[in-house]
Write a structure and sequence with these properties.
Length: 147
């Protein structure tokens, strides 16, 4: 369960579809005491399987108790524009900041020393990166998951 205090506008999280049955990636648009206004998405069949497609207009907030973090993986780091080091599980950098990815968690690194607590979720990485650089990590073209 996520709390209002650990989220920011623009964070990617796992929420529920409009029926409250299926977990889907969503983006935080607004935070209130009642819940999270998220970009709503539907699952649509395509020729290549299923794809999330943005819907418009919902006035129901996602309850904090239904929101979950999206686990960090190398696909997210690459989609955010991080440059990978020589190993798939290793060093990633962006805008002069270095992170080390190790099996489901990520650390902020200075001179090869881990100086942050383990980051396990995308919103944690987004928040730390924004604090360090002033830049919000976003996916291109309104996507809510890596390609």
């Amino acid at each position: 369960m996520l709390t209002k205090e650990e989220l920011r506008i623009g964070n990617y999280i796992i929420g529920k579809d409009v029926n409250g049955h299926r977990d889907i990636n969503q983006r935080v648009l607004e935070l209130s005491q009642d819940g999270i206004a998220v970009s709503p998405f539907s699952v649509v069949a395509t020729g290549r399987g299923f794809e999330l497609v943005q819907e418009t207009g919902t006035d129901r907030p996602l309850l904090y108790g239904w929101a979950k973090g999206i686990p960090i993986d190398t696909n997210w780091l690459k989609e955010f524009g991080f440059t990978a080091g020589p190993h798939e599980y290793g060093d990633f950098s962006k805008s002069g900041f270095s992170f080390k990815f190790q099996v489901g968690q990520c650390y902020f690194v200075v001179d090869q020393n881990k100086i942050s607590r383990p980051l396990k979720f995308i919103h944690e990485l987004q928040n730390l990166f924004a604090d360090l650089s002033g830049e919000l990590l976003e996916l291109p073209d309104g996507k809510t998951k890596p390609s």
